[in-house]
Amino acid sequence: MSEKNSGQRDSFSTNFGAIAAIAGSAIGLGNIWRFPYVTGENGGGAFLFIYLIFIVSIGVPVMISEFIIGRSTQRNPYGAFRLLAPGKPWFLIGLMGVLAAFFILSFYTTVAGWTLEYFYQSVTGNLGGKGHDELTAMFSSFLDHPFRPYLWFLIFMGLTALIIISGVKNGIERYTKLLMPLLFILLLLLVIRSLTLKGAGEGLKFLFRPDFSKITPKVILEALGQGFFSLSIGMGTLITYGSYIRKKDNLTRIASYVVFSDTLVAVIAGVAIFPAVFALGGSAASGEGLMFVVLPEVLHKLPFGNIFSLLFFILLAVAAITSTISVLEVIVAFLVEEKNMPRKKATVIATVSVSILGLLTVASLGSLKDFTILGKNIFGILEYLTANIMLPLGGLFIVIFTGWFLSRAILKSEMTNNGEIKTRYLPVYLVLVRYLAPVAIACVFLYSLGILKFW
Length: 455
Ligand code: PFF
Known about the structure:
Layout: H1 15-26, H2 29-41, H3 45-73, H4 77-84, H5 91-123, H6 132-144, H7 148-165, H8 169-195, H9 201-208, H10 217-231, H11 237-242, H12 251-280, H13 290-299, H14 305-338, H15 343-363, H16 378-405, H17 408-416, H18 425-448
The structure holds 4-fluoro-L-phenylalanine.
């Protein structure tokens, strides 16, 4: 992670540090909580298939484009577009990113709060010995509780703000290097436990055997949205982080590592969850509660289940916080660089305003759950609007910008580090950002609006 002091722009201290911070942003609840639940609601294998195609053909070029914009300008997204295209409206992409950051933090921190509640419940031993129905009831009564979900939300938001304020380089970087591999090992243990449950095979089939008849415009849009959300792209988070990457680091290589590890964690989370869903009698399409009703049961089927359970939920909270800090950083970097605010003041203002919307979001699953627009509560609206619309739209403009408007010299110099390194990916990248990615994103939009029909 980066530190910026007294106007001097700092950068990630090592290549590994950059990868760890960017992967830290990408890997989080999006992989372990959202990927399985969205896959479950959208038919399984066919969704995964489309998701993977989008990751490679759209995700990678958008990510590299964000790095190029950020590193070549050394600015937050808004400032970066102002610098690269003065007097033109491209800076609006940066503003949309700041707005998306507000929305994402509101619902993401809500779920991050749930991980703290489940950590707490593991500590008190309340999760052990419960079957599917009891865990489902427990989850919904937690959401209805008059203050617990609000409290956990505020605690998580506060922790995120504290990390952002108090220079994070030494803290976060050091701990995540140790803790994230630990979370990965724990996921692998869950995979083994889940796969050895009776009836697990059905879950694997669900995830890996695509049933193409299940593909609908909705499934395609959700796959695109999940790809953007999971990779943290489309809203300038990686423009901001890209601006902290050192000039000598290889952007293509960083992007490949990040995309590979992010996808691996998502698929592994799927393999941990779906076999258990089928074996233990749940439903793959049970929505945003899926992980919280399935995994406690699997965790408690391991020897020393309680210990694994509390370890899992606290590590998940750590994975979530490395993502929330990257989202809050988008707002803070904007306020600091564009509004000349001291970092501390910017963080406080951003945190307080996010918390107002966030508390409403928490309430939208409890006391305000009957308040819906187009069948969705506030939580659902913010999630849908950001993942499926704002991020892909941001991504569309970002690739159009780098593909058609940004000078070839800047692209080349960023991808080759001023001629220092060779990259065979440049011509492929150009085809992707100029043609394939923008056309694909536009088609998904038109298709899901019913304007375009393929069959
Ligand atoms: N990529 C994060 C995850 O999968 O958990 C969520 C996220 C972080 C989305 C940062 C967007 C973002 F800018």
